[in-house]
Design a protein that fits this description.
The protein has 277 residues and is α/β, with parallel strands linked by helices. The protein has a single domain, classed as Rossmann fold (3-Layer(aba) Sandwich). Helices cover 39% and strands 26% of the residues. It contains 12 helices and 10 strands. The strands form 2 sheets. The chain has a 6-stranded mixed sheet with strand order 6-7-8-3-9-10, sandwiched between helices. A hairpin with a 2-residue loop joins strand 9 and strand 10. The longest helix has 18 residues. The chain is globular. It is a peripheral membrane protein.
Length: 277
Amino acid sequence: MSEQTSNEPVLAVDDLRVDFAATSGTVHAVRGVSWELRSGRTLAIVGESGSGKSTIAASILRLNPTPPASYPSGSIRYDGRDLLTIGEAELQDIRGNAISMIFQDPMSSLNPTTRVGVQIGEVLRRHRGGRRRQHRDAVLAALRSAGIDDPERRATQYPHQLSGGLRQRVMIAMALVGDPQVLIADEPTTALDVTVQAQILDVLVELQQSRGMALLLITHDLGVVAEVADDVLVMRAGEIVERGPVEAILTDPQHSYTRQLLAATPRLRDDREERAS
């Protein structure tokens, strides 16, 4: 968990509402949520599938297709700008640069026909210009920072030649190569086994602390939250039902839904029972 803090939020969400048009009517996916994220802090948004947590993450970079998505109210402010209303060109300058995102499934996010080093370098070329060779050192440094050994060789490989854990590390390298202020990690370890999951979480924590980034973690797993987060938002059916520092949420949950999530997390349930005995 992080120690560096800032008084001013680097990202502020106010009364955000996200709707989706469907054949059966309007789906109110996010229902008026507000929160702030500060530099050097890790905020976890936790909830089951359909709670709206990933919709919020996608809304920050306007990745929800419109239509069917719409934003009836609210704002998402970064650096004095509302990300919901700025122009597409201005938003493109922010995506992958000031604000980056790690997705759940690397295989659907990485180009299977392009070497991973080239894909990481494209992020720098898009935002900083220059030729591919000019960014080679930065690409290799990003791979090293993500915990990848022998980055020179890995950079020449294609996604299908890498294990699931290595592909997720490549996604981390790609997200960090632009030195973002905000990193969004949407279920970054769900598809990984427990050992690799722990390694990826360690990498995220180390990088977040060393760079002083703001980290927004989207997850359904309170065990992951316990390892990484400073603060927690618990979501259900598009609304925040509980929020607070991670220790308070894990040791003294006030909402019945939070208690249900804790009971469904074996590692935390066993720890709580052991402390109570």
